[in-house]
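dumping this here so i dont lose it
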């Protein structure tokens, strides 16, 4: 479609697209912080200003935790791509944060797949899509593993007013919705962007075991870091809760929030609603929980996105794809 378009015109439109992505990301962040129906931004600011725990030492420690959180995500992506191509840590940093910014307002950050693929030649697109899917699956598997343990401890310890029959019916419906497509895919020649199920199976089985092992290890380390960061914020707000009890609720919250499709920009609202419900059992104020969730979002999504905006603006398509 763009074959007859002059090169300078293509470049102009490409720059315009990059600016639109950055401006759009900034606007969504600003909009979410100032129009959050769950937590008024002025109330949030006043609550933080009155909290004496926000010393320079604590703020630096929280930022360091966020840096390590993304450090291991960047390391994981570098490690996964090394399966077929060696890239530097700085390359992985640019691809990870740039794709975060560009995919901020896409459902479940689905835009991350396309953005990361743009850093490579067209011949590598399918590999990048498959590896990105693998990396996200590893993180999701970690969330599910810790989440199921947390759910078991949570529902064993706290008595909740839940209609288990309705929950069972919903579970059966979800199971049917998930299992039938899987069975159908196995018996068909279904493919995504030309990648058939059999081709994907061959690709994933060709990946060495140490790639899986280290990728999963990085995912677990990331999970432990940002879940501890959540716990540290709870303690900063003066909540008297021991680590095991806190992690029981935190892991349950991350599991429930992760299985509900949402826009990344609205992730703070979803986690806030789930967290308020779960922590209400132990009589913790909504304001404290919503403030912690908002700070987690700012530290681990907003700040990396601001840095990623720089990479979006300086991004250039590989020569063979222009």
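and the seq i came up w/
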């Amino acid at each position: 479609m763009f074959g007859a378009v002059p090169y300078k015109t293509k470049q102009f439109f490409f720059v315009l697209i990059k600016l639109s992505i950055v401006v759009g990301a900034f606007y969504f962040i600003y909009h979410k912080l100032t129009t959050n129906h769950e937590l008024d931004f002025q109330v949030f600011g006043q609550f933080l200003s009155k909290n004496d725990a926000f010393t320079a030492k604590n703020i630096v420690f929280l930022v360091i935790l966020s840096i390590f959180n993304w450090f291991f995500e960047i390391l994981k992506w570098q490690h996964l791509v090394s399966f077929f191509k060696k890239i530097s840590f700085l390359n992985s940093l640019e691809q990870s944060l740039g794709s975060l910014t560009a995919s901020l307002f896409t459902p479940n950050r689905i835009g991350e797949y396309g953005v990361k693929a743009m850093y490579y030649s067209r011949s590598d697109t399918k590999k990048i899509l498959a590896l990105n899917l693998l990396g996200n699956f590893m993180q999701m598997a970690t969330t599910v593993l810790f989440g199921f343990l947390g759910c078991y401890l949570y529902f064993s310890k706290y008595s909740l007013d839940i209609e288990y029959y309705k929950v069972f019916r919903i579970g059966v419906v979800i199971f049917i919705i998930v299992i039938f497509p899987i069975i159908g895919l196995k018996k068909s020649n279904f493919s995504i962007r030309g990648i058939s199920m059999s081709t994907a199976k061959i690709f994933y089985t060709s990946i060495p075991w140490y790639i899986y092992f280290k990728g999963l290890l990085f995912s677990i380390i990331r999970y432990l870091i940002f879940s501890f960061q959540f716990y540290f914020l709870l303690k900063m707000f003066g909540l008297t809760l021991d680590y095991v009890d806190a992690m029981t609720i935190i892991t349950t919250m991350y599991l429930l929030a992760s299985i509900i499709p949402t826009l990344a920009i609205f992730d703070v609202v979803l986690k806030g609603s789930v967290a308020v419900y779960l922590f209400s059992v132990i009589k913790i104020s909504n304001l404290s929980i919503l403030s912690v969730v908002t700070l987690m979002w700012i530290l681990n999504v907003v700040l990396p996105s601001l840095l990623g905006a720089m990479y979006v603006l300086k991004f250039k398509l590989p020569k063979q794809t222009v």
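The mean pLDDT is 78.
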